[in-house]
Design goal:
Residues 169-357 form the FtsK domain. By secondary structure, the chain is α/β, with parallel strands linked by helices. Helices cover 40% and strands 19% of the residues. The protein is built from 13 helices and 16 strands. The structure holds adenosine-5'-diphosphate and magnesium ion. The site of adenosine-5'-diphosphate has 13 residues, from helix 5 and strand 16.
């Protein structure tokens, strides 16, 4: 009987191991809930007092001075009290808990202790925030979810694009209805064009007009030629197309005013013009001048038109997604004003701290520091604006050239006409009269 039982136990153990590794591979979130989360929870609860003590997160209600005989003794009283924590709540690939601060405590020391918590709990990362007065929220992520961003599902709504994964484990969605215009920065080879490609792939099946402005030879957006209503590869063409788009939004404005609507979304379904997404890769190509008078005039026109689209486009269904290596005023005075219109921000790895500051500085100082810590190995990793005014670290899904070309040809039939824009592209000489 003994050997049979032993063989049975061994077989069961082997099955558990195989099933466990399969679960880990295929359903990492379930694997986390079933094994990682309980273990980490025990670790959090067991170590909390000591960790709090070592990191100066405790308080004491005893006085720090005592009279011993004739002596006054000062010192740290024993048995300091750690602040109370809630039971850790499981999140996909992590956990979160709330700390109730004692009177007199501030979130500062907790934020500083994030690294210590990360090591004590043996997790990939810990982030400390204080969404409410008197409490601190600690969120831990078990593994770097951006190593292999999984394909989560996203709402299939108009002008929404699932472009990657957030560090928190959720989908990274660019929602143009919520934030109409976006700025994407990063050094060369940091993943800007890949993100744009992913965005175009996601918008291609939707009833949306896509206009590409890629003045670095059109190599990136050229892949999507079949699905683009217009693609410009030179600044002269860009001026013509942007000018035509400004005329288009003026028409839309008139239509809205006549119907008593404040945006195209208030117009009846049948009368609503199609949303337009203008995608600009390598912004500097539009702004940098070669010193000639014509070049300067073109740059100024581009600047004026882009700004106009940024200011008026949101309500009229014209959206800007602008990618560039630098967005400083060295490109020209118009860039700062344009930047102010692009509320959505995405910052990949940058070479100069200035660019991270310009992209995220008005959002959050921590976000700037996180963006600056992205290494050159982490291609496609970026810090992005979140939905509730916060920020997140995220990684885009890699879109291959083949995939881009296939998507464009699969949805080529959905490419709408924008008569004004198409006319302007055919006769670019009319650009300077606009
Ligand atoms: N999300 C990603 N995951 C993996 N690799 C990526 C990702 N994004 C970009 N890359 C890699 O980085 C390289 C450079 O990306 P690219 O988008 O061309 O950068 P940029 O436009 O900023 O110069 C690409 O060839 C691609 O292989
Ligand atoms: Mg590029």
């Amino acid at each position: 009987m003994g050997p049979v039982l032993l063989a049975f136990a061994l077989a069961a153990l082997a099955w558990l191991l195989v099933a466990g590794s399969a679960l880990r591979e295929r359903h990492p979130v379930w694997f986390w809930y079933l094994t990682g989360y309980p273990v980490t929870t025990v670790r959090v609860l067991v170590t909390w007092r000591r960790v709090a003590q070592f990191n100066g997160l405790t308080v004491t209600h005893k006085p720090s001075r005592r009279i011993v005989g004739d002596l006054e003794v000062r010192g740290e009283p024993v048995r300091p009290r750690a602040p109370r924590i809630s039971f850790p709540r499981a999140t996909p690939m992590g956990l979160s808990l709330v700390v109730r601060l004692h009177p007199g405590q501030t979130p500062g020391p907790f934020i500083a202790a994030a690294d210590a918590l990360m090591h004590a709990w043996r997790v990939h990362g810990v982030r400390v925030t204080s969404p409410e007065r008197g409490t601190v929220l600690i969120t831990a992520t078990a593994r770097d979810p951006l190593e292999r961003p999984g394909l989560a599902s996203a709402p299939a709504e108009l002008l929404c694009a699932l472009v990657g994964a957030l560090e928190s484990g959720g989908p990274w969605v660019i929602d143009l209805r919520q934030i109409p215009h976006w700025l994407i920065t990063g050094a060369t080879q940091s993943g800007k064009s890949t993100l744009l490609a992913r965005l175009v792939c996601q918008l291609a099946p939707q009833p949306v007009a896509l206009v590409g402005i890629d003045c670095k030879g059109g190599m990136e957006l050229g892949l999507f030629g079949d699905r683009l209503t217009a693609l410009t590869t030179s600044r002269r063409e860009a001026v013509a197309v942007l000018g035509a788009l400004v005329v288009e939004i003026q028409d839309r404005m008139r239509a809205c005013r006549a119907a008593g609507a404040r945006s195209i979304w208030e117009l009846p379904h049948t009368a609503r013009p199609m949303p337009v997404v203008v995608i600009v890769d390598e912004l500097a190509e539009l702004y940098l001048t070669d010193g000639t008078r014509q070049g300067k005039a073109e740059a100024e026109q581009c600047s004026t038109y882009l700004l106009r689209l940024g200011q008026l486009g949101a309500a009229l269904g014209v959206h800007l997604v602008v990618a560039g290596q630098r967005v400083g005023s060295d490109l020209g005075p118009g860039v700062t004003a344009l930047r102010a219109q692009l509320a959505g921000r995405i910052c990949h790895r940058v070479n100069d701290p200035g660019t991270a500051e310009m992209t995220l500085g008005d959002l959050n100082k921590d976000a700037v520091a996180v963006a600056q810590s992205i290494t050159s190995q982490e291609k496609g990793v970026a810090v992005c604006t979140g939905t509730e005014g916060g920020w997140d670290r995220a990684r885009s899904h890699l879109t291959t050239t083949e995939e881009a070309r296939k998507t464009a040809s699969a949805y080529a039939g959905m490419t709408p006409e924008l008569p004004g824009v198409n006319r302007a592209l055919k006769a670019p000489a009319g650009g300077d009269s606009a």
